[in-house]
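Customer ticket, subject: "Can you confirm the structure for alpha-L-fucosidase?"

Message body: Hello, I'm evaluating your service for our small team and ran a test protein. I'd like someone to confirm that this is what the system normally returns, since I don't have a reference to compare against.
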Amino acid sequence: MKNVFLILCVIGITFSAKSQNTVKAPEPFGPLPTQKQLDWQEMEFYAFVHFSLNTFTNKEWGYGDESPALFNPTNLDVRQWARIVKASGMKGIILVAKHHDGFCLWPSAYTERSVKNSPWKKGKGDLVKELAEACKEYDLKLGLYLSPWDRNHAQYGKPEYITYFRNQLKELLTNYGDVFEMWFDGANGGDGYYGGANETRKINTLEYYNWDETYKLIYNLAPKTLVWGVGPSEARWIGNEEGRAGKTNWSLLRQKDELAGKVHYTEFMSGHEDGEKWVPGEADVSIRPGWFYHATEDDKVRPLDEMVDIYYESIGRNATLLLNLPVDRRGLVHENDEARLKELVSTIKNDFKTELLAGTKISADNVRGNSTEFAAQNVTDGNKKTYWATDDNVKTASITFEFNKPTAIDRILLQENIALGQRVKAFNVEVKVDGKWKTAAAETTIGYKRILRIDRVEASAVRINITDSKASIVISNIQAYNAPTFVRMPEISRDRNGDVTIKSEEGNPVYYTVDGTNPTEKSTLYKGVFRYNKAVQIKAICFNESEKIKSAVKTAKYGASKENWKIIQVSSGDLKSADRIIDGNPNTEWAFGNDENKLPQQITIDLGANLNINGFTYLPQQVGHNLNLISNYEFYTSTDNVNWKLQSKGEFSNIKHNPIEQVKTFKKTKARYIRFTATAAVAKGSTVSIAEINVIETL
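Agent reply: Thanks for trying us out. I re-ran your input and got the following:
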């Protein structure tokens, strides 16, 4: 009987093992990523480089009539670019090989408008080739941007240009090795040089380029290349140039509707839950206000606080992050940009220094077929191919991590196994503190990666509750961290009378200087509003007294205060409320122009005294959906309000998608009066608005 019992036990164990081995993996659900898209998503972070004729003309968009002879960097070093990108943890570089002005950074056989007719390397250089070699040396992937719009080409808008455009695509995709991403900008058609025609040419973006045929060409030449942007692309714009994805972010898109013009770009931030195609989001942003280098922005590099937020709201929200580095006229990444990158890398590395869930006791209330192949423990094994899965039709489930002792945490990272589709629609995070569960976060989508910043707690356990899912749950990775306290910079503002206000979060004390030096805890303690109506550079820090750590330095530069400024004439609009454009408050605005008072429209300001100025700034309306943006302008100065001199005219390039403060400089001049004229509006609007007008003083 004993032998019979042993045999039955062996048979039972064997049967049980076979049963576990035969548990079927979850079926893929919904639209799925290709291997190319999976590889691209895993890159997470890569660089954009804008460097061309615009760098030397101080423009964002060239008109197309600029001479190639202007392109003459004094110390071009693409290896410096690659070294900085690699040290920053980025995985590749996308180079703007040709922007809207049509100038090519490689010696294209199809145009004379390229580096071959520039003084750089006596016309023998090939910047694309040099960068491709540098990327290979530093183990980075190379991507390329080729503008479909060409404001120089005489045939733009005609079928002949499409042949030219595709010929250049062939050159780029066959002469420089693998290209991980081909980037097509959505800006297409408008005014330009066009071989001397100097006219406006409008095209139907979706029809003119015959994108289906263009994409076939790309895939035949370079099947490994992912195509971004216009047409039936494999990745999408995130809908803004601020580097921020929506809290809800599906990798799906109703692309058929998009190609039919039925999707507004603001929907790209979140994607579509019911999208029929896998089109993940790429969040693009420049490290400075502009995309090309401008010396006036050397002190306007995005602050560390903002860069950290961008990281968490792009990569941490199921998107990739494409960070632009505007190479300067030397041909180098500027020192200020490199310094900010180093600060960002240091912060992110410290945030994710020590993972806390590996080694905890892990349990789940449902495991697919009770199989170890789909066990809860898979989410901490460091293997991206394993995952915790639930039974079919189980769309809500919980996974719990129990610590050996209360542990401080303030970051939660989650990843779905997106090879099987994006599924989770809602989840929350609970922490057990002093024996009681409390909700730390309640969110929607996860996707490839979701990172949550929560208030620091000493928790004995963490529980992730998937509260809604399209199909059975497949989670490949869950991590927790205790990131160091991050002290945010103070906010500095000054009104038109010169009254300075400095605000900090959580009541941290603020220390500041007005002499340009960096503040310390021994600098002047901010105690309340103070008046400083001269030109000044204010620097301030917040200090966390309990942990003895300080914020990065916040810098604010101001000219003389506007207390003596006065609006003396407007061509339309309400004169009484026009003071809003000189009140020092970026959140107020004033509008002028309408169907009866068509553009151009102007406003005249008395500065109260003669000032030496060499430029002006226009801050567009910052609040609201319809910002009534000015696209073209003229700026005049006068010392007597009788004789006027035109100092600057042109366009505010790319203002539609990047409505930041516009800076225009000119030769130093003396002015008592200024006149700003709006000559055209975005989308041919008749009403335009202004948040603030300022002048740049020369001291």
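A couple of notes from the result: The CA atoms of residues 9 and 15 lie 10 Å apart. The radius of gyration is 29 Å. Feel free to reply with more questions.
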